[in-house]
Design a protein that fits this description.
Helix content is 39%, strand content 17%. The chain has 121 residues and is of the alpha+beta class. The longest helix has 22 residues.
Length: 121
């Protein structure tokens, strides 16, 4: 049995190996990087949540519904398909300093007002 001697890798093979090792280190560093924790989230007072909720109402954008989520200290604003990004920006601008309390959620379809005998259903 003969053993054939291999030659040293060429310059391009070394570069390829170096790139692969560097990419592996970068991927490992990305996974090891610290992530944001939920405990770092800013909490808002009841007054701030009320002001943010009032701001959404003052923005008067059709196709929106909102409620105060006291458990998560947020005002959840649900927008339908008719609401544009510019209108969402208007809501946030109206909220001003309390805009961080807003959580925007999108829903498919459009909202309709349903009334029976003068009362909303």
């Amino acid at each position: 049995m003969r053993i054939k001697r291999t030659t040293a890798p060429t310059g391009s093979a070394r570069r390829t190996r170096l790139i692969a090792v560097a990419a592996g280190f970068l991927a490992a560093a990305a996974f090891a990087a610290p992530t944001a924790n939920a405990s770092d989230a800013h909490t808002f007072s009841a007054a701030q949540l009320t002001q943010a909720s009032d701001s959404v109402m003052k923005a008067d954008i059709p196709g929106t519904a909102w409620a105060v989520d006291a458990k998560n200290n947020r005002v959840v604003v649900t927008v339908d398909d008719t609401v544009s990004q510019a209108e969402i920006a208007k809501i946030k601008k109206q909220a001003g300093a309390d805009a961080g309390a807003l959580t925007i959620k999108h829903t498919a379809g459009t909202f309709n007002k349903l009334i029976s005998g003068g009362d909303a259903i």
